[in-house]
């Protein structure tokens, strides 16, 4: 399991959302597998991405702050104060029992005389009021799994540590999208008295990428062009998660124009795949040779084009 998410990003627990985002972007640029070939960079990047996914969402961050590393296993209807008091009371009772002291009671008499399972009642199954319930199936659970754009495109095998501490291999199918759920049957909460375990649902999060932006099944990528390629038209190479592709640039293309490569986005096992949209960005040489300057000056003298004209 990853360490404390605040420590992973190198920010204090009081950090603002902007500070968390800045820290993530800086670390992601340093450790993304596409730019850092160190053997441990990919694991570090996944750890950074998981920390950011949790802390960048105010509600998820609130639960993490309240419940700590167990926040994914705590049902959503559990009150943080009740949880904290229950854990404190359970610890106090254990200590008191070791010393032979009287049974601990919470201030105000709440939950007096009960054990930890009594306090949380039927949330996790078990006993209440000294009675054993019948077999209770295990609860379904959720956890997030962060994948790269390349993993979402091609599919992948990942090793995952479950809330129980056991590691399992997970198949990431090609074409998964942000928010999609992957079901691991029988890997959720344990059932009582031989009842079946619940299922674990992995919620897919696609990590930010230095080149690609995923929107649904479509993938957006910047396409740098020289002024002459944009003006005259050209066929140029563009990187895609599936490898290099060729895109035809029509003559007269300006920055911001989207060139669509149909079917080159995320695959769709049940239908039409997404598209890749290359956004033209016209670039000028930062330093001109004498000949380039002469030619640009000649073009300036003969051209009637005015980019600021409203016509």
Automatic annotation (TrEMBL):
<feature type="domain" description="J">
    <location>
        <begin position="4"/>
        <end position="68"/>
    </location>
</feature>
<dbReference type="InterPro" id="IPR008971">
    <property type="entry name" value="HSP40/DnaJ_pept-bd"/>
</dbReference>
<protein>
    <submittedName>
        <fullName>J domain-containing protein</fullName>
    </submittedName>
</protein>
<dbReference type="Pfam" id="PF00226">
    <property type="entry name" value="DnaJ"/>
</dbReference>
<keyword id="KW-0143">Chaperone</keyword>
<dbReference type="InterPro" id="IPR036869">
    <property type="entry name" value="J_dom_sf"/>
</dbReference>
<dbReference type="InterPro" id="IPR001623">
    <property type="entry name" value="DnaJ_domain"/>
</dbReference>
<dbReference type="InterPro" id="IPR002939">
    <property type="entry name" value="DnaJ_C"/>
</dbReference>
<dbReference type="InterPro" id="IPR018253">
    <property type="entry name" value="DnaJ_domain_CS"/>
</dbReference>
<dbReference type="Pfam" id="PF01556">
    <property type="entry name" value="DnaJ_C"/>
</dbReference>
């Amino acid at each position: 399991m990853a360490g404390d998410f605040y420590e992973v990003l190198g920010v204090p627990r009081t950090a603002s959302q902007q500070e968390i985002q800045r820290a993530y972007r800086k670390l992601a640029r340093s450790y993304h597998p596409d730019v850092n070939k160190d053997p441990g960079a990919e694991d570090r990047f996944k750890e950074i991405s998981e920390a950011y996914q949790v802390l960048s969402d105010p509600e998820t961050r609130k639960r993490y702050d309240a419940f700590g590393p167990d926040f994914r296993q705590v049902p959503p209807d559990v009150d943080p104060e009740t949880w904290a008091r229950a854990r404190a009371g359970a610890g106090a009772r254990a200590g008191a029992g070791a010393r032979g002291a009287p049974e601990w009671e919470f201030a105000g008499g709440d939950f007096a005389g009960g054990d930890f399972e009594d306090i949380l009642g039927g949330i996790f199954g078990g006993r209440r009021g000294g009675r054993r319930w019948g077999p209770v199936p295990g609860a379904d659970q959720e956890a997030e799994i962060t994948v790269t754009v390349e993993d979402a495109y091609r599919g992948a095998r990942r090793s995952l540590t479950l809330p129980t501490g056991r590691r399992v291999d997970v198949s990431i199918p090609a074409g998964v999208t942000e928010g999609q759920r992957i079901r691991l049957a029988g890997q959720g909460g344990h059932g009582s008295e031989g009842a079946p375990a619940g299922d674990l649902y992995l919620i897919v999060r696609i990590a930010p990428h230095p080149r690609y932006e995923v929107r649904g099944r479509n993938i957006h990528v910047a396409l740098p062009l020289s002024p002459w390629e944009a003006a005259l038209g050209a066929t140029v190479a563009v990187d895609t998660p599936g490898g290099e592709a060729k895109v035809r640039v029509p003559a007269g293309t300006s920055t911001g124009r989207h060139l669509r490569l149909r079917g080159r986005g995320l695959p769709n096992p049940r239908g039409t795949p997404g598209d890749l949209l290359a956004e033209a960005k016209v670039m000028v040489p930062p330093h001109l040779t004498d000949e380039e300057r002469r030619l640009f000056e000649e073009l300036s003298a003969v051209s009637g084009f005015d980019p600021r004209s409203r016509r």
